[in-house]
Amino acid sequence: MSGVKRKHYDTENDSDAESEAKEYDKPVASPATLASIAMVKEPRLGVDHMLEYIKNRKSHEMTVLILHAKVAQKSYGNEKRFFCPPPCVYLLGDGWARKAEKMAPDVQVCPYVGIGGDQEMQQLDFQGKNFCAAKTLFISDSDKRKYFTLICKLFYSQGQQIGTFHSRKIKVISKPSKKKQSLKNADLCIPSGTKIALFNRLRSQTVSTRYLHVGNGAFHASSSQWGAFTMHLLEDNEPESEEFTSKEGYIHYGSTVKLVCAVTGMALPRLIVRKVDKQMALLDADDPVSQLHKCAFYMKDTERMYLCLSGDRIIQFQAAVNSKEGNREMINDGTCWTIISVDQAQYSFYEGLGPTNIPVSPVPIVKSLQLNGGGNVAMMELIGENFTPQLQVWFHNVPAETIFRCDINILCCVPDASMFRSSWGDYSQPMQPLKVALSLVRNDGIIYPTGLTFTYTPEPGNRARMPTFERAT
């Protein structure tokens, strides 16, 4: 590949690939599923099918998103401490509606969710929406697992299985620690730049639980839907602005933070996290914020104003001065929020050759890429989960020769840039690195976007002979 150098990969995912790979519990396909997939001997997807997908990706893609807390409190005896916030299953992408148009009018997607082990799976109902919540899941003290994953099985109501999808790993805890936390228990602390959820329970009543959420362009308190918010740690002197610099480190009481909705990008003004003790906000607490702690959010540079809910509305509440203790301010129930870290597992696919009766799972997950060699002979190693011999790597609309090693490792030959149809453009202008979207294609035509891109980079000299490629969108 004269004049062009193949470069490292880039990822669209915001979490560290290596650490995610360690935490991810992989779903295992049944022998029957793998056998039925293997019945198709040769890749059947054509270049035209892939180009159609790339051109109309938004209208074709189907995504299953599982949102859940990173920790779950164990139930003891006959009690049932339902997971809070409740795990939610979302069906995203226009492909679901397109698929529904081709099926009988009364066919619906039926979800079942469970925690594995001896507990039965619970049937949920989308009720005409694109999400549903598993509100009655719990883990008992007889279950000795320290970690578990949620299992979500999706079927069409006529009996056809869509697939089986797993959440990220969830840590089991006994109860929130009331002791002063330290960073020795880092897995219970909250790093800057990670996602959290906030919920409020008036007088500790479960039925009154409301979640901070963004809907219709505004923050509100929802009884049915919870939001995931990225919590950024700021410098204390960071001014109020739409743009800000996020620090590394763990969130402590007294920290200045910014809460940004992970879906809409809407943000609250700068907040200071304060510890709560018996309807008092502690102004001098500085220990790390921990899972399921109760906290309050002081709106920085205001006169004792706190983030508060009133029914479905989010308002500002002015705390009262504590005349006896100057390091405390009196707050109300609506300003007392429980904080918990949250995570998500996302699976996207498209039936490139039309509807298939074979489950789309196990959905392959690519965690990282490693380029070996260079020049005219370059190999790329894909590291991840749920790989099968029936998968082929595609660079944009170009299939690559693929070698299956095991369920976490496959190799492929990197296509020469000359394989792509587009030209690099005007040679009189500086040439920029160009990114190629990577997909995995099952041999019955199921396309799995990886969220990763491969970059072709121009090298100095020999510019007129450079093979080129148009940027993928």
Automatic annotation (TrEMBL):
GO cellular component terms, semicolon-separated: CSL-Notch-Mastermind transcription factor complex
Segments forming domain RBP-J/Cbf11/Cbf12 DNA binding: 63-187
Top-level lineage group: Eukaryota
Keywords per UniProt: DNA-binding, Nucleus, Transcription, Transcription regulation
Main location as per UniProt: nucleus
Pfam families: BTD, LAG1-DNAbind, TIG_SUH
Subcellular localization: Nucleus
Family annotation (Gene3D superfamilies): 2.80.10.50, Immunoglobulins, LAG1, DNA binding domain
Chain intervals for the UniProt region annotation (Disordered): 1-26
InterPro entries cross-referenced by the UniProt entry: Beta-trefoil_DNA-bd_dom, BTD_sf, CLS_fam, Ig-like_fold, Ig_E-set, p53-like_TF_DNA-bd_sf, RBP-J/Cbf11/Cbf12_DNA-bd, RBP-J/Cbf11_DNA-bd_sf
Entry keyword annotation includes DNA-binding: yes
Gene Ontology MF terms in the entry: DNA-binding transcription activator activity, RNA polymerase II-specific; RNA polymerase II cis-regulatory region sequence-specific DNA binding
Annotated Beta-trefoil DNA-binding domain residues: 188-337
SMART domains assigned: BTD, LAG1_DNAbind
Family: Belongs to the Su(H) family.
Protein name per the record: Uncharacterized protein
Annotated source species: Ramazzottius varieornatus (Water bear)
